[in-house]
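User: Here's a structure from my thesis project, written as structure tokens. My advisor, Dr. K., wants to see whether a designed sequence matches the one we expressed. Can you design one independently, without my sequence as a hint?
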């Protein structure tokens, strides 16, 4: 499986942006997908995840209430809708696939397939 994220860019604070992540190759059946982000000089942090069914989502405290993750199993696609963006949301955003079916975790070590990342820059 390969992941490719898209949709990053430069936006102003308070606006919205949508990122998409498409899985290609072997299917991602049964596995959760997640978003992580990394700002310069900081550790990669958990943003949110969605289970295989798309029925359950979990979010990091910094984005809860502003970001929404959805998943289209048929298209092997996951979206991250980001609203009310803040300068501190500036980072490279990565999508990732859990290493096993049924595994739900906010720990990046539990994800073994990663996309190359897309830059999101929020200006004040």
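Assistant: Designed independently from the structure alone:
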């Amino acid at each position: 499986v390969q992941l490719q994220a898209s949709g990053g860019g430069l936006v102003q604070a308070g606006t919205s942006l949508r990122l998409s992540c498409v899985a290609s190759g072997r299917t991602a059946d049964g596995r959760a997908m997640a978003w992580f982000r990394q700002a310069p000089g900081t550790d990669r942090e958990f943003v949110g995840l969605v289970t295989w069914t798309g029925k359950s989502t979990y979010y990091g405290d910094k984005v809860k209430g502003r970001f929404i993750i959805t998943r289209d199993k048929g298209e092997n696609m996951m979206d991250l809708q980001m609203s009310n963006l803040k300068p501190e949301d500036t980072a490279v955003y990565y999508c990732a696939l859990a290493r096993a079916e049924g595994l739900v975790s906010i720990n990046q070590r539990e994800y073994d397939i990663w996309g190359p990342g897309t830059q999101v820059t929020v200006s004040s």
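When you compare it with your expressed construct, this may help: The mean pLDDT is 94.
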